[in-house]
Amino acid sequence: MLGNLAALDVGIILAYMLGCLLVAFWKSTEIKTIRDYTLGDGSVSTVVLICTIFGTYLNASSTIGTVEMVYTMGLFFVVAKICSVLVWPITARIYVNVEQFQGCLSISDIMYVLYGSFGRWITTIASVILSVGIIAAQAIAIGYMFDYFLEIGQFAGILVGMGVLTVYSAFGGIRAIAMTHVLQFVVFYVAIPTACFFALKDVGGMESLYQKLPESHVTFNLEGEKWLYFLSVSILLLPLNSPPFIQRFLMSNNTRQLSKALHIIGFLHLPLLLTICMIGFIIRVQMPEVQSNVAFMVFMDKYLCTGIKGLMIVGMIAVMMSTADSFLNTASILCAHNVGKGLYPGMNDEHQLSLARFSACVIAGMAIVIATSRSGIVELLWWIRNFWEPIILVPMIAGFLSFRTHPNSFRVSCCTAIMFVYVGSYIDGKLATVSIVLGIVGSAIGFFGAHYLQLWFGVEMPKLDEKLLKKSKQNVFKYDIC
Question: Is residue 211 part of a domain?
């Protein structure tokens, strides 16, 4: 026994962590250039692409956070969450023509092509801030998990989880991450439904579950301020736009493969999401007295047998790590390729690779500091996203949809986005979903308003399609600070 776990469960956890490290050292010998570290060898199977995109999407918020919200709000949140499955066809429709950005290694390269040096640097800064926050949120969840089950303390749990994650992300690059995502995908896609099956059997089946739920959890209404919250949750439908997703899209071989992968993920996501929501209902029936933020872990501890419990813990750790390693890898690439190479154009591949690995360690350290000073996972995620979606989402989607404009439009959109975020935070009293939504609205107003105002004054818009073709052929970016 170690903490609340039997020897078999501890062995399953140790085997998983060791497996991640072995994959990292195996793949590290294949990395010779920054492109190998970033995108791999240029060819990726559809199965691996599906696993790595879906693995990046599932995180502590979409699993533990979803269970917590279903436990608290019931059907109201379930309806909003199920609608989020539509994000996959929406994303496929917007980003499927990724071949137009061949030669780009990151989202900052894409924004440089579209909006110049200012676009690249703003995107890089926002990407690093977003990555540190999201990694910290996953670290908090990992710390909770290890502390509850192994009783080693939250700080020690964070160090263990982040230590393993940093090693295989920094040394194995995208190859190791893609391999571990396949492992992680299999683990959580087996573990979560298995846990739900045993829990549902214990509660007496679907009919018994429905009858035992309080009325507040099986009725849908928009009374009071719920309509505003329901509307703000619409950000779940925003196309995937974080740096790791754009990097995964660039990994795809062609538009057909990417479109196929995104649509398959949509079909895979729905049953898994329904299973996670059902777990939230089951916990509400079985343990109505526990605090919602630890309900999932209490459920795993009390209602899962030896072996299944270890598998479920590994599944949840896999969910958190698959998101954290994606952001860690992407942020380290931005620091090396966009910041390092931008400041020192003569930096060769070997130096960029070393800087990327060093940056991964530094970013992981920053995330650990934030994780040990905060406790709210969902609140941290909403807060940090105010520095990303309002500034990047509208200009990036417009670029992928072949809308070409002057870089000044991006500058104006950044200013209006910040103003609207401030207004949203004033109305809601905090940086959360309302400020994100208003920030995106402000960005759109500034971006398209500036574009058509410039057209009215006779400003000639750049022919970025020709410029993009030239950049793709040369695969060389000029790095200058705006």
Answer: yes
Asked if residue 477 belongs to a domain, the reply is no
For residues 151 and 4, the answer to whether their CB atoms sit within 8 Å is yes
As given in the structure block, the two tokens for residue 14 are 């140790």
Alpha carbons within 13 angstroms on the beta-carbon side of residue 400 total 23
Q: Point out the residues of the chain with pLDDT beneath 70.
A: 1-3, 27-29, 37-43, 172-181, 183-184, 187, 221-236, 253, 375, 463-482
* Residue closest to 271 by CA, chosen among 186, 372, 192, 337: 192
For residue 359 the two structure tokens come to: 């940056």
Which of 234, 229, 261 lies closest to 389, judged by CA? 234
- How many domains in the chain? 1
Q: How far is CA 412 from the centre of its chain?
A: 27
Structure tokens at 371: 């994780």
The boundaries of the domain holding residue 231 are 7-378
CB atoms within 10 A of CB 47: 12
* Dihedral over Cα of 279, 281, 284, 285: its sign: negative
Residue 381's identity, in one-letter code, is: L
The C-alpha angle 440, 443, 445, rounded to 5 degrees, equals 110
| CA separation for the pair 353, 332 (Å, rounded) | 9
A 10 A CB-CB count for 155 gives 14
Question: For residue 222, what pLDDT is reported?
Answer: 66
Structure tokens at 472: 């793709």
C-alpha distances in Å from residue 298, one per residue of 4, 144, 288, 413: 11, 12, 11, 46
3-state class (DSSP) for residue 5: strand
Which CATH number characterizes residue 251's domain? 1.20.1730.10
Confirm whether 442 is domain-assigned: no
Residue 291 in any domain: the answer is yes
Give the distance, in angstroms, between the CA of residue 208 and the centroid of all CA atoms in the same chain: 36
